[in-house]
Amino acid sequence: MDGGALYSIGELARLTRLTVKTIRFYSDRGIVVPADRTPAGYRRYGPDSVARLALVRTLRELGLGLDAIRQVVDRELTLGDVAAQHAAALEVQIGILRLRRAVLTAVAKRNPTPEETKRMHQLAQLSEAERQRLIDDFLNAVFTGLHGGAEYAGARRSMTPELPDDPTDAQLEAWVELAELSLDPDFRASVRGGAEDHAADLSDSGSRQPRPDVVAIARDHATAALASAISPHSPQADHVVAALTADCARIIGRPDDSELHRWMLERLTAANDPRRDRYFHLLALINGWPAPERLTPALDWSVTALRRRAAR
Fold it and tell me: For residues 88 and 228, what is the distance between their CA atoms, to the nearest angstrom?
């Protein structure tokens, strides 16, 4: 057929590799319009219909809706405008799908109850403002009302997750887990208890200057012992424990006696919550910070060493 020939709907279907039914549907929607009809009423399409349908097919494969496609082929909108709008809509859909995948991945790893799964799904869909309110509520529960509360602004900032605008899948999964952890009443009570103990130490000393607390002192000594492969049960641990209790007595201004040792054991046992390590690991992942050193091994060592010597 020459360039001015008209095509039947069947011939157009063969040229475009679309079905007759699909072409008829597009024709009924005004996306491709017959150039003429036979006396019997059969549609005939012009040569431009081949190119028009090729464009329609491409745009459909890209996910554009029929109304937008009709506006493009009729030149009511430019292809660039429609593409930009569609790309923006796809970006939103991609974000939703990634959040859903984060929840499903967490569910697959943890095998939660139906109620926990529902809560995780809700957490994944929070807006930025809603996420901030959730974390503010957690940090308020931890720090509000403490002695010298204004001095904890830095601690609040260091515990605040900031999910980036374009988070990775790992960051999304970490956010869901951290948010759920921050809602755990037992974890909140544990973190609040540690903050209250630290505030009480500052109040008792009358000092408003930062100083190492018993947890930090124990961490430093126990980390060195662990690096030297000293078991908390071994005789070699005696000098580590002696140095630990002596430093603690000097810094907090108390005698290095059995009462101090019992107090240290109580404080370190209460502080030894593996969920704290998990929170800061997730926080670092979300914020793009270096992975923090785990506190649990040092506290495990210190508690075991102190308890063993208290039993002598």
Answer: 56
pLDDT tier at 168, thresholds 50, 70, 90: confident
d(CA 169, CA 178): 14
pLDDT in tens, 79-90: 787 678 777 777
Q: Tell me the domain boundaries of the chain.
A: 7-77, 99-310
Which amino acid is residue 202, in one-letter code?
A: L
Nearest to 197 by CA among 269, 117, 247, 294: 269
- Give the strands of the sheet with 43-45, arranged side by side: 7-8, 43-45, 36-37
Distance in angstroms (rounded) separating the CA atoms of residues 148 and 162: 26
How far does Cα 194 stand from its chain's mean position? 25
What is the Cα–Cα distance from 9 to 23, expressed in whole angstroms? Answer: 7
**What's the CATH architecture for 7-77?**
Orthogonal Bundle (1.10)
Residue 22 burial (10 A CB sphere; 0-12, 13-18, 19+): middle
What is the residue whose two structure tokens read 């009809």? 37
Q: Quick check: helix, strand or coil at residue 144?
A: coil
3-state secondary structure of 43: strand
Q: How far apart are CA 182 and CA 123, in angstroms?
A: 11
What whole-number distance in Å separates Cα of residue 52 and Cα of residue 56? 6
Q: How much is the pLDDT for 148?
A: 62
pTM of the full structure: 0.66
User: How far apart, in whole angstroms, are the C-alpha atoms of residue 228 and residue 222?
Assistant: 10
Residue 166 token pair: 């374009």
Q: Which two tokens stand for residue 15?
A: 């040229």
- Comparing CA positions, the residue from 256, 145, 253, 133 lying closest to residue 192 is 145
pLDDT at 301 (0 to 100): 97
Residue 30 region, left (φ>0) first, then alpha (ψ -120 to 50), else beta? left
Instruction: Report the interhelical angle of 79-110 vs 169-182 (nearest 10°).
Output: 50
Residue 44 CB neighbours (<10 A)? 17
Count of alpha carbons within 13 angstroms of residue 256, beta-carbon side: 11
